[in-house]
User: Fold this.
Amino acid sequence: MRETPLGMPHVCLFILKFGDGGVERMMVNIARGLSLIGVRVDFIVKETDAPYLHLLPPEVRIIRFQVSKQKAALPKLIDYLRNNDPHIVLSAKTLDDQVALLAKQRHAGRTRFFLRPGTALLSRMKARGTHPLRRWLKKRQLVSLFSRADGVVAVSQGVADEVVEISHIPLAKINVIKNPTITPELYQQAEMSVDDEWLAPALPPLILGIGGLRRQKDFPTLMRAFALVRKQLPCRLMILGQGNKEEQLLSLAQELDLGEDFRLPGFVDNPYAYLKAAKLFVLSSLWEGSPNVLTEALALGISCVSTDCPSGPYEVTRGGEVAPLVPMGDPERLAEAMLQTLRQPLDAKRLKEAVSDYTLEKSARGYMAAFGLTVPQAIDGH
Assistant:
C-alpha cells in the first residue's frame, strides 16, 4: 500500500474511456485543482496517451488499467482500493459509475463514491427524441446509480434539479460545484498569434460558434440567425469543431447563400485565439450541463449571446443579466440579440466578473467541501 501522509486527503478520479470532450477536460482540471491545494490525487485511465493528460502536474499519479472492456476493470479497481484505500473515488460517465459502484459493494475500507453528472440528462433524452421505452430503462439505470452513490456532484443547479427529478434522492445529497473551466493556459493561448487571414482586425465582425457538429449544438439555428443578421450588418460566421453534421451544415450554407462569409474549418488546436479575435460568441445549444466554452468566452471579455437551454447558460450569465438569453431553436430571436450585441458590445469587465468563480482552485475547494474533507493548504493567502 502506498502510504498517505497523516491527515492528507486522497482522491481518485476514475475515467477509463478517454476522448477529447468536455467531461475529460474537466476531470483533468479537477485533478489539477485538487493537486494545487495539496490533495494527493490518483487518476485512473485506460490509455495514458489520451488528450489533456499532459496537463496533469507530476504530483498526480496516472494509473493505467490495461483492459479491453469496461467490466474487465472491476477486479483491477477492487485491487487498487484494497491497496490504496483513498478517501474518495469520483467518476463522471455512466459506464465508469457502474464499475465504481460494483467495486463499492466489495470494498470494506473508508472510500466513499461520488458521481459527477455533467449534462442535463432528461433534457438530453427529450431533445434527442429518445424512445419512451429506452427513456424508461435509462431512468431506471440512473435511479440505481444515484441511489447507491455516497454523493453526487452536479455542474449546475439545472443538472442537480434533473437528478432529483430522475432519482428522487434528497437534494441534500447533491452538491452543485462550478466547473474548473478557467485555467492559466486559457489566457496564454488567447494571446498567441494564429496564421489565419480571417482573424485580421480590418475585416467585418467575426461571429464564432464552437463545439461538436452534432444535434446538441443546433448550429443550423445559428446559421439561419446569421443569415438574417448579415442582411442588416456586414459580418462573418465561423464554426469551429467536427462531427457528423458537417455535410448538413455545408448544404445549409449553400441553401442560405452564405458564400465566403461562412467558414467551417473543422478542429483547431487553439480555439481561444479565435475567441479573442471574435466580436461575438454564440451558444445555440439545445441542452448543456455547464457550457465551458461560454464560460471561457466570458472570461476573455468577449460579448456573448446564448440560448436559454437546460442547463447552465442561465447560471453562467446570471439569469441573462450579463449576456442575452434567447429561446432555443428560434433564429429570429437569436438574430435580434446578435444584432443588438454587435451594435452595442457588452461590458468586458462585467463579463469577466460573472465567471470569476470558475477557476481551478475555487472548484477544488468546492469539491473538498462536498467530500467533507479538510483543505490541506491555502494558496496565495486564500
